[in-house]
């Protein structure tokens, strides 16, 4: 499968067309961003680590019966995926309070959320990815009620699978975001799952091992990603 025209360049990945209209190639770059893309830096090894991490997670989800866009890993930093008609609504699960939820509601960071909370955000960097609801999503034509219901169902299924996976590595899956798209009339998990799009803490020390290391200038960002990968069994070489 050969890369053809560049279709889209995001904050951390580039998307290329292939000779098959149903398939795309994702290139995981070393770019790392925060503040809705206003702060961007290059972190060595990031593209390789996130590509391998994502491939591992997508296979675990497929094994659990959750359809994803992942087809196969092509190289250290490239992967073949299904071409989805992406829905511009991010689904966020929170198992513990962190990030914007703490700022919005004045909660204590690390407070357990039982049951987990589920939120929707409109994917638009210029607007700061504002929080929305199902009614707005339907009214503005971003998704149908049936699609939103399926997205929520799948997000909770992903949470069940991955909480157990990270727990086995003595890690806490604090929260994460997912993006979905339509492939031949089916709702399919798209984008990526890596420490860029979730919060992961050490179970005992609560050490942050995710993108918050970059956001909060804690240092050793990729080392944190690699530690998570090693603890859940991601092959990095």
UniProtKB/TrEMBL annotation:
Protein EC: 6.3.2.6
A molecular function GO annotation: phosphoribosylaminoimidazolesuccinocarboxamide synthase activity
Gene3D superfamilies noted in UniProt: ATP-grasp fold, B domain, Phosphorylase Kinase, domain 1
Catalysed conversion reaction: 5-amino-1-(5-phospho-D-ribosyl)imidazole-4-carboxylate + L-aspartate + ATP = (2S)-2-[5-amino-1-(5-phospho-beta-D-ribosyl)imidazole-4-carboxamido]succinate + ADP + phosphate + 2 H(+)
Record domain SAICAR synthetase/ADE2 N-terminal: where: 6-231
Pathway: Purine metabolism; IMP biosynthesis via de novo pathway; 5-amino-1-(5-phospho-D-ribosyl)imidazole-4-carboxamide from 5-amino-1-(5-phospho-D-ribosyl)imidazole-4-carboxylate: step 1/2
One Pfam match: SAICAR_synt
Keywords (A to Z) from UniProt: ATP-binding, Ligase, Nucleotide-binding, Purine biosynthesis
InterPro entries: SAICAR_synt/ADE2_N (IPR028923), SAICAR_synt_PurC (IPR033934), SAICAR_synth (IPR001636), SAICAR_synthetase (IPR050089), SAICAR_synthetase_CS (IPR018236)
Record HAMAP family: SAICAR_synth
PANTHER family: MULTIFUNCTIONAL PROTEIN ADE2, SI:DKEY-6E2.2
NCBIfam families per the UniProt record, alphabetical: purC
Family: Belongs to the SAICAR synthetase family.
Descriptive protein name: Phosphoribosylaminoimidazole-succinocarboxamide synthase
Source organism: Psychrobacter coccoides
